[in-house]
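Curious: can you check?
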Amino acid sequence: MEKFNHEYNADQIQVLEGLEAVRKRPGMYIGSVSVRGLHHLVYEIVDNSVDEALAGYCKNISVKIEPGNIICVEDDGRGIPVDIHPKTKLSAAETVYTKLHAGGKFGGDSGYKVSGGLHGVGASVVNALSDWTEVTIQRDGGIYTMSFERGKVVKKLERIGDSDKTGTKVRFFADGSIFETLEYEFDVLEKRFREMAFLTKGLHITLEDLREETPKKADFCFEGGLKSFVEYLNKNKEKLHQEPIYIDKEGEFPVEIAIQYTTSYSENIYTFVNNINTIEGGTHLEGFKRSLTKVFNDYAKSHNILKEKDSNLLGDDIREGITAVISVKVKEPQFEGQTKTKLGNSEVSGIVQSLVNEYLSAFLEENPNVAKAILDKCVSASRAREAARKARELVRRKSALETTTLPGKLADCSSKNSEECEVYIVEGDSAGGSAKQGRDRRFQAILPLWGKMLNVEKSRADKIYGNDKLNPVIIAIGAGIGADFDITKIRYGKVIIMADADVDGAHIRTLLLTFFFRYMRPLVENGNVYLAQPPLYKLSKRGMEDIYCYNDEELAKAYKEIEEKGISKDQVSIQRYKGLGEMNPEQLWETTMDPERRVLIQVSVDDAIKADETFTVLMGDDVGPRREFIESNAKFVKNLDI
């Protein structure tokens, strides 16, 4: 190996002073510099205010998006301390905003019993990644201000007046040289702050968007806490019991849990630690699941609901149709990995399990009608699971590389490297034929589907395994479904839905996405699912290369460029594609399948709660919410077949 001809000594070691490290590697602190990272700045400041609420000192938080995308966050907490810090010899407020790992969240004698936020570095990170920051503090009878530019102090903390109020106000403008965009999305912030209000009972959060002539405003305050949260999650679902099962224990180790069963077949459990969404679960979820399984089995046996021929109910049976939110407050939480998405404190499992055992057992005894309704559903789920097991054995693949009978209509690719392989799920035999002829056989597989497939939102797993439309998809992908799904066994790194650009095509995409979300969610979360974007128009003229346009904006731009070349618009013929089958293999390759020229949309699940709600509305049994959704979104429709 060739060696570089220079010395390597202390002079080559780079030391980033102060907040320079944050500006140099922002992704390490906020995840990314995309729109997601931009919103993260707001969350970090609001998290500090929420910590004041958790400590019992803050009742109101106001968040404003001011004209020019300036953020203003104000609370009525205690206000950041303004006295001199013994170690830094700076004011405590300046220390918090200029020093990493400075704040009231570390150690047993910190200012907070429990706290969320980003390891206590939120304020300094936001300051470092902002073009400017202004902080106003009211406490100790005074009003104090200080300001910064790109993390550096431009105005030291000074007292500017008197006040008998307390609280902190932070205004900042994100640094455009760091972030890809500075445009905040009201809906994204609204979802996050609604969730925060649910998790902090009685806290009032106001969000205002002042950028437009007509301001937007959202107010959140839920005295019911997680009980209100579960009711919100199930607002479009048919419930087995109207009143959620609610557990709320204060003390040294606060635990709050709300449970409600619906007639749906999906399981929705959300867990939080100190208001942090632990999307990977952890010990609090483990304790909850163990208790749920034990309590319902004990009750079923003691009340002769389980007959001799029935074995114990499994956890999956008992959790069918459940919506639950679990929130625990831990003084020193231990998280697995860097992302705070899985709780690791071993003692939490036993505490949650013991608490749920006590409260849930008492609830079932006191509410026998509710207990019977839930257990009837559990027993039905158990029988369906056994039917699904038998059906599953017919289609399960033990390995992504193991030879097996693949679907007859699947035209597989020659490569066995799943990372480079991709499968196009194509609507109809006609389009499938063109795709098979136009593809690159080395790494592109084609699976044609015909007709409408099963709506899995209204079906149990035993119906899915035997479905002639979904079965080929399950076998082709090769990783199982539901609890058996194993992302490491997928046969294709890209699963691409290629449907017509019309209403029927949109319906097929929705049905497939519902299936992937409910039964292969890791496939979506891992970024393996894509939507192909076939062109809507083709412009052609003798002597001119064909021009493909994927939307009306591109069509208008193409016409303008043609006219600039001196060609009349009337001389150019236009074809509006209504189906993929109208394209010959060469056209399909050029426009939709060639990796060098195609347009793919990657499907992601940034907000599982919102995704679950959307699938329930669009694909569930209740017509009312679906009608309301259609009416409120009709104005956004661009391509509608008449």
In short: Confidence is low (pLDDT under 50) at residues 1-17, 396-403. The two ends are 66 Å apart (CA to CA). The chain has 20 helices and 21 strands. The chain has three domains: 20-220, 226-392, 422-534+602-636.
